Structures are given as C-alpha cells and as structure tokens.
Amino acid sequence: MRRYSLAALSIPVLMAACAAPSAAPVAPMPGVAPAWPFSGKARVTNGINAMVVTGSPLASEVGRDILQQGGNAVDAAVAVGFALAVVHPEAGNIGGGGFMIIRPRNGRVRALDYREAAPSLATRDMYHAAGPDASVTGHLSVGVPGAVAGLTEAHRQYGRLPFSAVIEPSIRLATQGFLVDEYRSSSIASDSARLVFFPASRTTFLPADRPPQPGSIFRQPELGATLEAIRDSGAAGFYQGWVAELIVAEMRRGGGLISRDDLARYRAIWREPIEISYRGYTIYSMPPASSGGVTMGQILNIMEGFGALPPFGSAALLHREAEAMRRAFADRNTYLGDPDFVRNPVERLLSKEYASQLRRQIGEQASITPNLAPMAPGGSSTTHYSVIDAEGNAVSCTTTLNNSYGSAVTVTGAGFLLNDEMDDFATSPGQPNMYGLVQGEANAIAPGKRMLSAMTPSIVLDPKKQLQMVVGTPGGPRIITMVYHVISNVIDHHMSLPDAVAAPRMHHQGLPDSLQVESDGFLPVTLDSLRAKGHRISARGRWGDVEGITRTATGWQGVSDPRRGGGGAGY
Ligand code: GLY
C-alpha cells in the first residue's frame, strides 16, 4: 500500500496538545503541481483526551474550556456555536441556521435540522418582481433563523453542564470584546461595501467607518445583551420577547417578511441521519433538508464500484469523479427538497444498484450537461466545527448565514446579523442561484419550507465501527465534494488527515458544465488530458475550510484547513 505522508515529514506527532506548524521541507505529493502552496501546511493540534476544531482558534478554546469544566461534546459544540456568532460573524451566527450530527459514544447517531424556513408570507415567485439581488442582500433575503432553536434543543437533549455555563463564554467575548487579528479585520473589510449600506451593520462592524483594526478590541454589547436574554429564557429569549420584537421591527424597516408568529412557530427537527457504507467504513451525514449526505453518498457509491481508484491527481481519477459528481448533482437538483414538503427518493438514490446504473453510463469521454448557467461565482461563508470529548462522544456541526455576513442586515438594537438563506431555494426554478446551482420544483419556495442546503457535517467509523473521523467544511455546493475528497483521500489514497485536507480539490455540479479545479493544484498535463476527454476546465481560486478530527495512536488529532484561519484546541 502506498502511503503519501507529507505530514509525517513535516509534522511530528506530539504526545501533548500543541500546534505544530510545518517547518521542514515538504516532498512533492504525486499528482500535485509543484506550485501548490498548501502541501504540509494544514494546522495540526494533538490531544490525548479530547479535541475541538473550528474556523476560529478563539472559539476552539471556548469549546476546550467547556470540556475541561466537565462538559460533554454537545456542551462544547453549543458553546462553540454561540462563540462563533461573536468571534466569526461572517458565518458563525444566531441569525442563521445549521445542521448537527451527534454520535454518543455508545448510542444512536442523530441528526438535528435547524435550517432556516421561509416566512409564512413567502411565495414561489416572490423574487421575480423584486429582482435577483433581493434574495442575496437585504431584508427580503432573510429566512426565519433556526440557530438558537437548534443549539438550545441539542443542549436540552444531551447537555450536561447548565445552559448558563455553556453560553457564558460567548457573552463574555461579546461584552468584554476580543482581540482583532488580521484575518477578522480583512474579512470585515472585504464585505464592508454591503455592510455599510445598513445602519446597524455599519455601527456594529464599521465603528469609526472602518473595520476594526488588527490589535484593537472588538466589543459587541448589543449582541451580548441578546445572548443574555437567551441565557435567561432559552430559545424563548430569542423567538419571543424583546429580541423577537426587534427582529420584526427590523423586517418592517426594510420590507422583510418575518412575523412574530413565524418566530414563535419555529422548531428544530430531529431526523434520521444518512448512513453510507463505503469500502467497509460507515459514514453518517446530514439528510434533507440538506442534500449533503445523499449527494455525497451517491458520489461515494458510484466511485466504490470502480474498485481500486486511479492515483490521486491523475486525469483518470478526476474524470471519473467529475462524471460521478455530475450525475449526483443532477439528482440533487431534481429530486431533493424539504422532506416535510416533497418526497425525497432517498432510498433509491442511495442504493448500490442505482449507483451501478449511473456508473455504467460513464465512459472515457466527458458527458454533456446543457450549459444554461454562467460560471458559479462561489464565495459562501458557512463554517464547520468538529468536537470529540474524553468519553468519545462526537459532534459534527455546520452552520451558516449563507453569504459572507449573510444578508448584511444587522438587527437594530440586538446586534446580530441575519441570514440570506432564501437564495438557497430555487428562487427561479431553472435559473442559477448565487452558486450557479440550477434547481427545480422540489426546492421551490413555499411558506414554512426549509431551503435545500449542501451542508455535509459527517462522522466516519472504521470497519470495526470505531470512531475514526469527524469532518465538514463551508463552501456552498462544493461542501459536498470537499467532504467526499477528504474521506476518499484518507480511505482510497491512504493520506493522513492533514494531507487529505491540504490536497488540491476539484468539483463538478453538472451545471455549469465545467470541471472546476483549484488554481495551481493539478499538473498542466493532467488538465490537458481532461480537456482531451471533453471537459471544460475552470482553474480559479481556492475553496473551503475543512475542520476535521481523526483518531491517532495517542489520542485525537485536530486538523484545520491551511486555506483559512481556523485552529484547534485539545487536551
Ligand atoms: N448556504 C449554503 C448551504 O446551505 O448549502
């Protein structure tokens, strides 16, 4: 068996919890372009007992502290969820939604859906008159937030520490403030043109009319007061009372639709996770209202039937992956939607027989998907976090406002951003959304319906059913293919998790009909071979922020994507 182990060269496995950035020269990985900047650069944290990895090192420390106070993985995940709303406001949120997979050490795996829902006044064609940008920026783009219902429900079912202890660190970070780093400052700067347009966003995120500078302390007292209301009254502190009044007032101010009843009615929903068997491993992932588990499962099922896969980075592998993805996304965009509104043929889509039918369609040349859509611009801001506690309980959670800083609308007086998740519906069935996804009637807007997501929080068990990996990422529809890549890189290409995360990524979603690759990731000769097979190649940008944990001989290894600013904390 060939083992690609860049991490083994560059990152010593340490007995105690510590970050170990790479310093030693890194051997080129077969199939990867020499210019690829991330080889050996994944941020690694090792812990003997427990691990938290998130898109923000500050939030990871919050999770680790909760674990060390005697909290379990769900306590830590809930604490991280609230902390990310403070320290990672581009995606961490209380005004958005998310999905959580929970695997108690010896218990049933469960999936919690706290996806946003369309307001009761929403209509199928509401964006036709309003114009396409109305589903992306401003009050009309906002779905009924689910995050607070989800986090409080997860804690109610599984938490061990008092809720007040779990939410306290986020209140402290909001009221006392935290030190702004380069990443946070430039992240706010990059969205300042949208934020400046909404008065409460301007005062919150652009004090003195510019982003908080690196080295300054960023305080959010209004957000702190909102979190205190949640501490004191639980979900009712958000969905009823003065916070709800301020949300409704904000909607009235900007022509949004969310009503008091919409807020009071919102509930998080427990669902059965998707269970995928792949080469003896078991993968649990998110069912609809996310497409993540089903679509990734279809890709894995198609690839499994090819037997041993061609080497990483080869044209033969990328071609098969692109063709598998193209087919899985075609089904996603046709069949999947909120299961409380449409029948999702999950069993059929995930059957191995159906995967072999699809696989038989794949030849040596690229198939064709009619190109109706422009290139996907990409650029979402979702965020993922993974937690394993000292007892082996695991949580995989992905949460989002959709766009970076969501709708760009901050609730006046309550200090938090609202999502623009309505754009994840087929706002105009047959036309591309922000991600270039062309979706159909199953995901059309209806009052109270949850918009289809791509979020793919996942937990992997090894063939002996031992917990092996917790993984997920932001990235719009590319979330699905990124989580696929990390799992396949580990299982099929025998990479360490740091290498699997650092490796270049490709993506195909059917429409637009292009095989997307990260720039400088794959060898030019590989891309030429793919062009000769008929693929249209788009080599632009780098994407994702995988935050994963894997088991090691001495405990747990947290791995943060070198493409962004996350980090882990363990003990
Ligand atoms: N808003 C991105 C997703 O849920 O897929």
Provide a short characterization of the protein structure:
With 571 residues, the protein is of the alpha+beta class. Helices cover 34% and strands 16% of the residues. The site of glycine has 9 residues, from β10 and β11.
Explained architecture:
The protein contains 20 helices and 19 strands. The relative contact order is 0.20. The radius of gyration is 22 Å and the shape is globular. It starts with 5 loop residues before the first helix and ends with a strand. A hairpin with a 7-residue loop joins strand 14 (506-507) and strand 15 (515-517). The protein has 571 residues and is an alpha+beta fold. Strands 1-18-17-13-12-9-8 form a seven-stranded antiparallel sheet. Strands 7-4-3-11-10-2-19 form a seven-stranded antiparallel sheet. The chain has two domains: 22-270 and 381-424, no CATH class; 275-378 and 456-553, Serum Albumin, Chain A, Domain 1, CATH 1.10.246. The chain binds glycine. The site of glycine (GLY) has 9 residues, from strand 10 and strand 11. Glycine (GLY) binds next to strand 10 and strand 11.
What is the averaged pLDDT score? Answer: 92
Q: Specify the structural class.
A: alpha+beta
Give the strand tally. Answer: 19
User: How would you sum up the major sheet?
Assistant: 7 strands, antiparallel
Radius of gyration: 22 Å
In percent terms, what proportion of residues is strand? Answer: 15-25%
Ligand catalogue:
glycine
- The outline comes out as globular
Report the end-to-end length measured between terminal Cα atoms: 32 Å
Strand order of the largest sheet: 1-18-17-13-12-9-8
Given as residue ranges, the uncertain stretches (5+ residues, pLDDT < 50) are 1-23, 371-378
